[in-house]
Amino acid sequence: MAEPLASSYTMNQNSTFLALLLLLYLRSTFAQQEEFIFTSFSGGGGSRNGSGGGLSLNGVAEIENSGILRLTNETSRLIGRAFYPTALRFRNASDGAAFSFSTAFAFAIVPEYPKLGGHGFAFTIAPSKDLPGALPSQYLGLMNASDIGNATNHVFAVEFDTVQDFEFGDINDNHVGIDINNLASNASAAAGYFDGGAAKRDLNLKGGHTIQAWVDYDGETKVINVSVSPFSAKPNTPLLTFPVDLSAILEDHMFVGFSASTGLLASSHYLFGWSFKMNGATRSLDLSSLPSLPRQRKKNVTLIVAASAAAALLLVAVLIATAYLFYKIKNADVIEAWERAYGPHRFSYEELKHATKGFRDRELLGFGGFGKVYKGTLPGTKMEVAVKRVSHESRQGIREFVAEIASIGRLRHRNLVQLQGWCRRRGDLLLVYDYMPNGSLDKLLFSDDPAPTVLPWPHRFRILRGVAAALLYLHEEWEHVVIHRDVKASNVLLDAELNGRLGDFGLAKLHEHGANPSTTRVVGTLGYLAPELTRTGKATTSSDVFAFGALVLEVVCGRRPIDPKALPEELVLVDWVWARWTTGRWFDAVDQRLGGEYDREEAEVAIKVGLWCSHPATASRPGMRDVVRYLEGGDVAEVPPLPTPAEYYDPGKDSVGFDDFLRFYGTSSFEKLSSGSAAFADEAPSASYSPLARFSRGGE
Q: How many CB atoms sit inside 10 A of residue 331's CB?
């Protein structure tokens, strides 16, 4: 009996020994699935507890001969992925709690355009290596527009992004983010690292240099830590810390790896090494022992950049030389023989360009009729001037225009803005005037300043007398009759002593004394246009008188000739003033801002003259000689009684009544009036008008 018992005992010992061997083998096999490290990806290799193993690649991912894993290249809208070939167990079978895990990897991002980036890549834990339906660009090859944020994704990722995507709320174009089932990061931070102190050092993800990253999940404390550094040692302080329980995110078996993409901008995403460990801290990678980007690649980039820079410099030099030659040709002053007859009034373009400091915006005084006006100082005399720059796209009528400029340039009166000279340079005409330091009358009357300076009455009355004297000179005292056609407050400029000077002859028309003015297009500014112009189309000295009447009432009352914001009964200034004149309460029309500080006799004379000049009937208006006499005298008794519209309205004569006057200023036009800029009314028959006006509008 002893022998069988001994044999049975021996068999039991052998069985126990075999069971122990099997347990050790199974334990070893399980341990192999928990940890791996790649210090090179060449030959599909790596090590998994010392045994062979490789990566599963899809998309454009490839392993180069040097052992570097290249996820993407410099082609637009691509996806490249690399996963560990077998699924790893990430949750405890008994309670479903997620295991701790730790990974480290070394990477580099080389954009096609270094300062622009080209999307990024992500360390990924996913239920599939293929991630069907995932898109490139901002989706990083992980998801698409329809499944963003779905809990069924079961995707955990740490993104290294080099493009700021506002769809997902990216903080910048150089950040690290923790993504759970979404590409809108649950936590993110600008790329950087802590080097032992409290200070954070910035790190450029797209700089093309090797960077090591660490991702650690603690299954006990339910916290994820992410660190990055350009060195082999792991920083003591993580870049990102985010508390989350991954038990509900991860499934029992998951694949671990990387996904990268490109969009309209492209980058090459490289991996040099990778280590991973379940339920423990993985080993950091020694960057010095890993493969690196070939120097030849950097040399080629340098050569390409150098060659591109040289070509760019050469191209710039050619362009500069061409532009300079074109500039010299374009800016050359072409003086034709017939222009020399107008002699000293012609300035060179370079002289005026230097005077206005290159026509820069800081020297801009404002916008006159048909052109910008700049302040300038003539280089030789240091005289301050105003230079109006008028564009002209046609040579039609240029000779007549210059002749007329020469004629107007001979005007000499203390109450006219003196035309000092002119310059013609191809499509530009430059007119040089006296500089008026106090600007235009309308800006002083209607200042936008919250606490405007009120123009005192003595200055107002002196300005009106000065403009009246200037119009008398133009109408009767010069060698030709000059019809200004645009008398208004914005064309009355004020010198240093606040003397009024009539300027802007852009619409002026000349004819001989005794000649009948021709029919022309109706031009001017609404509110100052005589009502007969729409019927006759003839600009006359009387139409200038009408405009002067509107100016007089404007200056006395401190209101525009037509105010679209006023009450209906106060819309037309002349009607409003006429109503007060007829009731004997003309003083109610005087500008209230004067506070009663004005000469009563002068104000009454001015209102009476203004109403007389504004009469709708042409024949009822005074001439400028009478206007000057009445204003200079300042005696209301010398001014004849005002004619009423009914006394002088005769349909058979060249006259218009007040009703026609109101129809002329139809309400549809009122919205154009508040700026006081020049407006063009309906065309009258015929088409011949001043060469000066024709040039100003590009030659019709």
A: 14
